[in-house]
Amino acid sequence: MTLDAILGWNDESATESQFRIYRSQESNPSWEADFSQLDTVSADTESYTDTDVPKVENLTYAVVAVNLAGQSDPTISDT
Questions:
Q1: How do residues 9-26 score in pLDDT, each as one tens digit?
Q2: Other CB atoms closer than 10 Å to residue 21's CB: what's the count?
Q3: Dist CA 18 CA 15 (whole Å)
């Protein structure tokens, strides 16, 4: 049996081309060092389901909006 994690966010950008989903298994993760990109979803998306959640004690997700100018600061949430 696998575990699922359902993420949700508010799309507050009018110009994004995609959202990038990141995940960390570290305790108190650092954005720059500990997150790995998990997936990409299209613009105007406001949810993502991680269908392969590892059975670990610490799990943190982050979402960033991406457009031609670069990417937003991450929105980080513990699960």
A1: 999 888 999 999 999 999
A2: 19
A3: 9
